[in-house]
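Protein folding task:
====================
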Amino acid sequence: MTVTDEFRAARYHLVSLQQEWERAREEFVWPRVDHFNFGLDWFDQLAASPERRDQDALIILEEDGSRLTRTFARLSQDSARVANWLREHGVRRGGRVILMLNNQVEL
């Protein structure tokens, strides 16, 4: 079973119990994996599926009524671009970075 499969199973189990809070709390177990990269192991896997790639993954509705949307494919591309930029600036796997952003699409 892949890391993605383990997280997907845990997520779907929680979703199936979303109205049964006590049972969800009792039964939930975090997947035990050595390494997990949210971008690669979760998000990019969703974006790669034909059913999901063009679905909205992010919707931001502002108080003024404006709406910003991003598909899974677009966010995956943007994530890769940021990772490459960080790499170009010396950040390597396992390096620690803190980004402080407002509530915006880049977050």
Observations:
- The mean pLDDT is 91.
- The first strand starts at residue 56 and ends at 61.
- Helices lie at 3-16, 21-27, 38-48, 72-88.
